[in-house]
Write a structure and sequence with these properties.
Length: 403
RNA sequence: GUGGGAUUAGCUCAGUUGGUUAGAGCACUGGUUUGUGGUGCCGGGGGUCACGGGUUCGAGCCCCGCAUCCCACCCCA
């Protein structure tokens, strides 16, 4: 038997119901916020991700499905969605057109990681990206949209917030931190030594308690923001307060992708194990420029659909449509004919075998039909059909012509 | 990538110190004497015990390998 590749799952049956329910709910809400659907290719030039996500990130450094195609192009399966959307935005010259452009997308992402619960090699994200709005109100709207989607799906969460600063305050802070940590280099753990070289801010997040003690007096970015960043961060908190969105400040929250600046946020669930981030995003004002576009402010977030799936509260399934069965072999052809007619307007289930009434009622239950319709000898003779409303428990016979 | 655990029917799991034809519940399917369901009763199908080796007279059970999933690290959605 050939089975699917490691970390790559099929989505079917009950999982498909959950999956589509989420997509429909999220799509609906994104549209209410004025976002439009965008679809970008799964395969992109490798350079796109190296330049956007950043070569220092784990995603690009060791998790990409990268290969040389038959035309000798260096390509890879997208590990995240933002880079492709930004590329499309620039390619369509919307950066030069000006104005605001808001998109949402959903689809497969690929990362060559060791799978565990909530971490797959092919997984699905729902994401949104907003271009051209510098105002921090847009950051707040993003967070509110994500919160609305989670709420609509009945998913509980904790919202963590941080500011990563901008090109004014981040570089000097980073230098400051590197100096601080470098002095401790012989005392900190191996991972931290590596982090100093790749993504220094991550050391603050280290789980090693020795490291944590050493970093207690480390400079915090949140105390070193420039006035613009500080004002925006304060304003963001005010907007969220005014709209009853609860949050906690996590000064160690660092997005793993290099392109983020200023607002960074993460929605976390305590009910799905160690892979607890269910949505994450933030502002990325410099990314369009990095990818050769005209400087354009932007903000976005992405949600991990598989992680949300088991948290989604599914709406109660209601009885729907018709079930039609025959109690006599001679009636089967007629049943088939009626079903074809009924299917033009309603969901209709049909049993091809003649059975007694009890079994048809059982079948109608199993199909979760609202109406159980049966044709037996009596009905054949009189040209009628027996119909029972399984919810209201009302039954009657009507002429077949009126069915 | 590192360390640990698990793997028996479609699903959730039993399976004794290694010993005959490997079990249960649920699900599926059929019947239930006269046309009333979701919740009665009786029956039926379904397993290369993940896979590959080894030890043994004999392996679901012991040993080695491998795959997948799970947990932690790491990372992130």
């Amino acid at each position: 038997m050939i089975s699917s590749l490691r970390g790559m799952n099929d989505i079917l049956e009950e999982n498909y119901e959950r999956f589509t329910h989420f997509i429909n709910t999220a799509t609906n809400i994104a549209q209410k916020y004025g976002f439009h659907f965008i679809e970008t290719p799964l395969l992109e030039e490798t350079a796109l991700f190296k330049r956007s996500v950043g070569e220092s990130s784990d995603i690009v450094g060791k998790e990409m499905y990268q290969f040389i195609d038959k035309g000798e192009n260096d390509v890879c399966l997208r590990p995240e969605g933002t880079a492709g959307v930004v590329r499309a935005f620039i390619q369509k010259k919307l950066d030069k057109a000006g104005g605001t452009h808001r998109y949402f997308y959903h689809g497969s992402m690929f990362r060559y990681e060791r799978p565990q619960k909530g971490r797959l090699r092919q997984f699905h994200q729902f994401g949104v990206e907003s271009f051209g709005v510098e105002s921090v109100y847009e950051d707040a709207a993003m967070i509110m949209m994500a919160a609305d989607i989670l709420l609509a799906c009945g998913i509980g969460y904790r919202l963590q917030l941080n500011s990563l600063g901008d090109s004014n305050c981040m570089p000097p802070y980073k230098e400051n931190l590197v100096n601080f940590v470098t002095k401790l280099e012989d005392k900190i753990c191996e991972d931290c030594v590596r982090r100093v070289a790749t993504n220094p801010i991550r050391v603050l997040d280290c789980k090693n308690s020795t490291c944590q003690d050493l970093y207690a007096t480390a400079p915090k970015l949140i105390n070193n923001l420039c006035s613009t960043c500080q004002d925006d961060f304060d304003k963001l908190k005010k907007i969220l307060d005014a709209n009853s969105i609860a949050y906690e400040i996590n000064t160690n929250l660092v997005r793993g992708l290099d392109y983020y600046s200023k607002t960074a946020f993460e929605f976390v669930s305590d009910d799905i194990g160690s892979q607890s981030a269910i949505a994450g995003g933030g502002r990325y004002d410099r990314l369009v420029e990095f990818l050769d576009g005209r400087p354009t402010p932007a903000v976005g977030f992405a949600m991990g659909i598989e992680r949300l799936m088991e948290l989604i509260q599914m709406p109660e399934v209601k009885r729907e449509g018709y079930y039609i069965g025959a109690m006599d072999d001679e009636a089967v052809d007629l049943v088939m004919n009626l079903a074809h007619k009924k299917r033009q307007t309603d969901k209709t289930t049909i049993d091809y075998k003649a059975k007694n009434l009890k079994n048809h009622l059982k079948g109608a239950d199993k199909a979760n039909a609202r109406f159980c319709c049966v044709i037996g000898t009596d009905e054949l003779e009189n040209g009628t059909i027996w119909i029972k409303d399984l919810e209201e428990k009302i039954e009657n016979k009507i002429p077949i012509m009126e069915f």
